[in-house]
Amino acid sequence: MRREVTLRDVAELAGVSSRTVSNVVNGYANVTERTRVRVQRAVDELGYRPNVLARNLAQGRSGQIALVVPYLDTPYFSELLQSVIRTARARGYNVLIDQTDGDPEHERAFIAHGSRRLLFDGVIFSPLGLDQQALADHDPNLPLVILGERTSDGTFDHIGIDDVAASREATEHLLDLGRRRVAAIGDQPYATGEAAQRRTRGFREAFQARGLTVREDLIISTPRFNRKDGAQAMAHLLDLEDPPDAVFCYSDLVALGAIRTLVSRGLRVPDDVAVIGYDDIEDGRYSNPSVTTISPDKEMIATTAVERLLLRIGSSTPPPAVELRAPHRLIVRESTAGRVTPPAR
Amino acid sequence: MRREVTLRDVAELAGVSSRTVSNVVNGYANVTERTRVRVQRAVDELGYRPNVLARNLAQGRSGQIALVVPYLDTPYFSELLQSVIRTARARGYNVLIDQTDGDPEHERAFIAHGSRRLLFDGVIFSPLGLDQQALADHDPNLPLVILGERTSDGTFDHIGIDDVAASREATEHLLDLGRRRVAAIGDQPYATGEAAQRRTRGFREAFQARGLTVREDLIISTPRFNRKDGAQAMAHLLDLEDPPDAVFCYSDLVALGAIRTLVSRGLRVPDDVAVIGYDDIEDGRYSNPSVTTISPDKEMIATTAVERLLLRIGSSTPPPAVELRAPHRLIVRESTAGRVTPPAR
DNA sequence: CTACGATTTTGCAGCGCTGCAAAACAGCAT
DNA sequence: ATGCTGTTTTGCAGCGCTGCAAAATCGTAG
User: Fold this and answer.
1) B109-139, pLDDT tens digit by residue?
2) What is the CATH number of the domain that holds B150?
3) Which residues form the HTH lacI-type domain (chains A, B) (predicted)?
4) Which residues on B lie below 8 Å from A94 (Cβ)?
5) Which positions on strand C lie below 7 Å from a protein C-beta?
6) Is B22 in the A-facing interface, judged by CB distances under 8 Å?
7) Burial of A238 by CB count in 10 Å (0-12 exposed, 13-18 middle, 19+ buried)?
């Protein structure tokens, strides 16, 4: 196991100081063409590659950002993750991943002692178990960008789509189909359920705008937004005296679970019950039926999050906190529109 | 922005040398109870936390391992990722993620210059674009564990299930149902398609064992193992003169795509065509119909991969390369068995 | 030919920690 | 006391790089 090539080795071969080699390697301005070439040649000859650890220690930064999400096997997050990694890498940053399982303690530890660990220079965080209060209590030295679930209190950036408007559109789409017994699956009427509550608000607004009344027994709370929750909630709805003829699900996974229950009970989607989801994950594009959904611009959310974070990391005086809105759109698929190309029988 | 607390600060407060503080912090053996308590008190009082960067530089290791996979939004990988992160963290390691998109150059760069980057101490790698030849050409100083797709050449560990046996079981399951026009979707008859070829081998063995003949026109190649490939391949199969009555798909995603095509053409699964997948991803458990599949023990694959890698990282003389087999089992669901009991009660 | 400002290069210290080997200390036998 | 082991603590160097400021070099004008 031979020793790695260091700056000093290169310097010696090129006949310059190690500091000059550093300048060349880092593309500093004030280096004459002559020396640059000479150094570059030595670098190539020895196959020098900078030691990231040493550089980071000297610079007092880690060159890494952390992406902290509740669940990695949730397609929404894994799709987001891809774009985050791509963007960060393009800017010379590595991405550390952490999954919190929504555990408040785990989440708190991350944002409270974050900057002391020196393992990452900033965090993109999608909280689940922390309420607004706990969030505000984050390490003030830690550059922080929050995704989706909360609104900023002025000490971090926040990026998400307009949940209220999007949910209203989703609900209106169902009402436009003539459905009146419209249910909602995914409310979370407690401190950490802010995003869910915004969706419920949009749901209600759609009814109000048309002078219709929301049936309160059709608003179902679920602890999470996964398939199982959707399946169970749908089963509950179907057992009601007057079951719904349409369902607004707060995530595509919930919608897939709901559809699963509907189909297994012999009901037709959308004929008997129309279903709309939220997130536009790939699963929903290939499911049976495919899922009508609210599609947030994930690519933009990811790249914006990274860029804002790097901006924060780069500035000595923290930039003012911003509240960013990513665009969204309604994508109509079979679960509300029916088969576009009708089946044989 | 105050300066961070260092070892020296603690040492001063405790009235000992900084080296002793280091010993206490790292739990070294030869420290008297007296000093340990004194130091610990100082640590607590100042809220000292070690600087990981400095420690790593001094130790010449990074405390991080890399997980390199072709696609992060493939549920199989994101499910694996979770277990890898959990295991690594328990052993004090962080996980860096990288997605290669199956790009051979990207993959090569990782294993060829890996150890020079000093960003990670070892790599768990699921190759896609590299053939056996290119794999052998990895940096010999880089601790490496390969997942799934290849067999070891003696310079790295390899972990995967027995693809041939599993595929044979899957095919036998279809034959047991009385199906005879059994198709296979996912063959990759080229150097980088080793795993696919092993599955095709198992497929053939199942026929041979019963004295049946494989219909060559029912073996379909696909570039990847995703939904789209499955959907297209299925469409092609249905356009044949004598279409199949059962399909063995080389991944659950392929199966989901295939089912999608079947259903949209008005065919019933499994009545008209039975479908079996591979990987046991969560999507297949909630789809309509749910997908019969080969379930590899992902948890074991992940934890074993991490442990083997850490073992390699820890040993000065590289341990002998091992070829590890994780168990698998057949999970029968609706896509072959039909509706058994209405789930999601 | 000298002086002076601008540009390029260099030397050194130090980021915060650990490896190493020496030093200090303690316990016990002589 | 003295010597001898074994344990605990310490000092120092250095991981490989960059920040800083001084030094060297260059170009131009006087």
Assistant:
1) 878 766 556 788 999 999 888 887 788 888 8
2) 3.40.50.2300
3) 5-59
4) 96, 119
5) 7-12, 14-20
6) no
7) middle
